[in-house]
Structures are given as structure tokens and as C-alpha cells.
Design brief:
globular, alpha/beta, binds 2'-deoxycytidine-5'-monophosphate, 12% strand, 11 helices
Length: 261
Amino acid sequence: MSREEFEFERRLRRRHPTGEGPEGGQSPPPGEKGGEAPLRGMIVTVDGPAGAGKSTVSGELARRLGYRLLDTGAMYRAVAVSVAAARLAAEDTEALRAHLARMQLTSDGTRVWVDGREVTGEIRTPEISELTSRLTMLKPVRDAVTPLQRRLAADGGVVLEGRDTGTVVCPDADVKFYLDGTVDTRVRRRHAELAQRGVTTSLDAVRKEIETRDEQDMTRALAPLRKPADAIVVDTTDLTAGEVVQRMLEAVERRRCCTRS
Ligand code: DC
């Protein structure tokens, strides 16, 4: 950790002594007003298109703030695993509704369970990505998952990462980010990320996947990917992940200073 980072975190702790870790994000007891700093940890949202670097920076941002990370995409992916295992067609709305009503979805922020079975290791296959993309366009699916995400965020001290976290899940979030980047950059990043995971594919195939997902995410009728009106937009094209996180931390800190009086 650089000296600058160390100083930043030290200031953060001094100003926000209870803001560390999940316990630090709890609301103050009824009737107790925050003094210098708000006692409840903030709700921070990070939205943006595929390949904008959301996962990398959201994880690091949460770690540096001592907040929990809520990967909202992982929850939709878990639903897809469960729908696939039940051999349901996404189009069979009635069967899907009944399945969702029975299904027990749980998340600790990054790991996910369906009916008590951890499915985290199964959620990132190409088949599940494709099914997730189709399922997230459906109302019964969003109706089942959004309230759970809201509950998981309610105590604050959390960074939510996804496509609709600042617009639909937590429209009253304290700080909202929208990460963007050129298609070329996002394609290169996603290609490198896949290569790191041992998946060999061409740049052209990744470009097609990114363009299809952009189109689906931005044009779907329900909870489409949009820049929240009050979001801080970070163009990540020419920035390293570290630089993006640093900008985000500074924005959170500015926000904290403004809300302290
Ligand atoms: O971020 P991800 O690739 O893990 O997301 C998986 C899919 O879920 C992707 O198609 C976008 C969608 N998604 C969504 O519709 N709303 C969210 N809040 C998060 C993800």
C-alpha cells in the first residue's frame, strides 16, 4: 500500500470509526444521532457495461472502504444455474414463476447458494452467461431478485456492482458510479480476463459477445442499463484499475465530508 493510500485509509477510519467491515455498516441504535460521521456505512453503487472493469474495481473499492461487496450479477447467474438444473425453458413463464417462488436464493455478497447448495463454481460458464442474459430480461426473475438485493444492501456499508444498482435496486444510494470505456478497450480486457481463466477465444468472438450484451442490457424493457442521473461517470479507457479505484475513493471521501455537517 502506498503512503498516499495509507493516509487515505487512516483519515477514513478517523472520520468514520464504525465504517469497517460488515458489523461497521450497521445502523445506529434508534434515537442515537450520528455525531461527526454518519454511523451507518454508505451505500455505493457501481453500474456499467460488460468489460468496463466493474468487478475488479468494485472488489478493491469495497476492500479499501472496509465495506461488503454485493455482486448482483452473481445472483442472477445463480438463478440461471437453478433454472438450467430444473430443465425449465425461460419462456415458460408459469413454470418459471412457480420455480422462483420455491427457490431459496442466498448470497454472502460474492458467493451464491440455491436451496442451500453453493453454486458459485458453476455460474461463469458460457451457457450460464447466455441463459442469465435471457433471464434478466424477464419480470418474474427481476421481481424475485431485486427485493433480496435491497435487503442485503439495507444496512449500508456496501458496494453493489451490476447494471441497475443505482437506478432500480438502490436509487437512494449515497454514491453512484457509472463506469464506461470504449468497446475496443472493453473487448481487450474481457479477452485478457478469459485468457487468464484458461478460456481461449478470438478477439472477434469477444467483440461480438460484448456488442450483443451491450445491446441486450441497454435496450431491454426492464431495468435497462442506464447512467443514473446523479452518477459519477468514470471513463476507464485510459486508466489502470488502481487509478479508477483511487478516483472512486476520493469521490466517496468527498461525499462523506459533505454529509458530515
Ligand atoms: O455482471 P455479470 O456479467 O455477472 O452479469 C450477468 C448477467 O446479469 C448479465 O447479462 C447482466 C445481468 N445483470 C443484470 O441484468 N442486472 C444486474 N444488476 C446485474 C447483472
